[in-house]
């Protein structure tokens, strides 16, 4: 493996951006327990701005307006569906600090009937506290309870640590995406050294950073 001297953030815009798409069965999803003091809550009316703040803190958006535009694209007019699909992790102090949503392809192009995991994010101050895997596995089990048997997870190279979580949970690159975003998967292999990506090549730092 190539030695990587540069320290990369968990959401790093220096990394060349490739769209990635993983898939996997919802059978036998192991559920990880939240750390003591945290619990899950579903979306309630009025949580839109909290969702935007979490995503902004996790560097998914650079501004409130950018977050609002994403909300309007994905969820405006679908708020009633979020009542049993959008999940928050809540701290002991009652602060909503992480979120993910068991949803579907809003563009209607995916005819497979798979559920789609949307907008996984943990507030900056709460990253590294063991919230990601409990959140993701809980929401995947919510998806299963909604009747889905298979899930797809859209992500990107910039959020490479999240990709590692999905690989750890048994999700794998969709074959077409593995071809179309081959260089992106090479970046993920170089950064994570994940055994699930043995068929991809390591690359040097110059191929990772813009």
Please write out the topology.
Blueprint: E1 19-25, E2 39-42, H1 48-57, H2 64-74, H3 79-82, E3 86-90, E4 96-103, E5 115-122, H4 132-145, E6 150-156, H5 160-168, E7 172-173, H6 175-180, H7 182-192
Parallel strand pairs: 5-6
Antiparallel strand pairs: 1-6, 1-7, 2-3, 3-4, 4-5
Helix pairs in contact: 1-2
Describe the structure.
The protein contains seven helices and seven strands, in the order ββαααβββαβαβαα. It has 210 residues and is of the alpha+beta class. The chain has a seven-stranded mixed β-sheet with strand order 2-3-4-5-6-1-7, sandwiched between helices. It is globular. The model has no long low-confidence stretch (mean pLDDT 95).
Short overview:
The chain is an alpha+beta fold and 210 residues long. The protein has 7 helices and 7 strands, in the order E-E-H-H-H-E-E-E-H-E-H-E-H-H.
Main-sheet strand order equals 2-3-4-5-6-1-7
Query: Low-confidence parts lasting 5 or more residues at pLDDT below 50?
Result: none
Q: What is the ordering of alpha helices and beta strands?
A: EEHHHEEEHEHEHH
Overall average residue pLDDT: 95
Overall morphology: globular
Please give the number of β-strands: 7
Number of helices: 7
Structural class: alpha+beta
| C-alpha termini separation | 21 Å
């Amino acid at each position: 493996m190539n030695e990587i001297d540069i320290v990369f953030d968990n959401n790093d815009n220096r990394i060349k951006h490739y769209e990635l798409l993983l898939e996997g069965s919802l059978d036998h999803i192991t559920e990880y327990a939240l750390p003591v003091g945290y619990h899950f809550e579903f979306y309630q009316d009025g949580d839109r701005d909290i969702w935007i703040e979490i995503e902004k803190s996790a560097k998914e958006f650079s501004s409130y307006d950018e977050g609002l535009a994403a909300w309007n694209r994905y969820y405006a007019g679908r708020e009633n569906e979020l009542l049993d699909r959008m999940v928050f992790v809540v701290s002991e102090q009652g602060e909503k600090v992480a979120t993910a949503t068991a949803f579907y392809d809003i563009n209607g192009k995916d005819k497979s009937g798979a559920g789609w995991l949307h907008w996984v994010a943990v507030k900056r101050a709460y990253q590294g506290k063991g919230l990601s895997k409990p959140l993701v596995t809980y929401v995947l089990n919510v998806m299963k309870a909604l009747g889905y048997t298979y899930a797809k997870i859209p992500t990107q190279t910039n959020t490479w640590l999240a990709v590692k979580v999905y690989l750890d949970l048994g999700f794998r690159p969709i074959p077409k995406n593995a071809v179309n975003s081959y260089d992106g998967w090479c970046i993920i292999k170089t950064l994570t050294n994940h055994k699930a990506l043995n068929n991809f090549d390591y690359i040097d730092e110059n191929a990772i950073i813009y």
